[in-house]
Amino acid sequence: MAEAAAPAPIEINDAYFCQHFKEVCADCSYDGREENDTFFGFDPIDREGLEAPASSQNKEGVYQCKKHGSPACNQCYGWKKQITRARAAAKKAGKKSS
Ligand SMILES: [Zn+2]
Ligand SMILES: [Zn+2]
């Protein structure tokens, strides 16, 4: 049945999100942190998931930010910076890696 199939993740400027534009989503049991961390050259850790800003698909089906209409927007889709920030916050908050 189509409804039972896990929704395919969407790709926004090289990072993966669920169809709700979340990197970690309870609604569809999606967690793209490991994939995204690895892609951007980090060791995956337990950190806060990213959320993509308002986006829409262009004619080619590529996601672009609504604010600037750019599929590779540095401001909206600056994932490496955002992951770095989330990792720093996670390390500061916890260090409970058991
Ligand atoms: Zn979701
Ligand atoms: Zn933008």
Explain this structure:
The chain is α+β, with helices and mostly antiparallel strands and about 100 residues long. The chain has one domain. The chain contains two helices and six strands, in the order ββββαββα. Strands 1-2 form a two-stranded antiparallel ribbon. A two-stranded antiparallel ribbon has the order 3-4. Strand 1 and strand 2 form a beta hairpin. The mean pLDDT is about 90. One zinc ion binds next to loops.
Defining key terms:
alpha+beta, 98 residues, two-stranded antiparallel ribbon, binds zinc ion, 6 strands
Largest sheet: 2 strands, antiparallel
**Largest beta sheet: strand ordering:** 1-2
The gross shape turns out to be globular
Q: Into how many domains do the coordinates divide?
A: 1
The average pLDDT value, as a whole number, equals 92
What structural category arises from helix and sheet content?
Answer: alpha+beta
Q: Bound small molecules, which ones?
A: zinc ion
Q: How do the helices and strands follow one another from N- to C-terminus?
A: EEEEHEEH
Count of helical stretches: 2
How many DSSP-defined strands? Answer: 6
Low-confidence stretches: none
The proportion of residues forming helix, as a percent range, comes to 10-25%
Strand content: 15-25%
Distance N terminus to C terminus? 39 Å
As a whole number of angstroms, the C-alpha radius of gyration is 14 Å
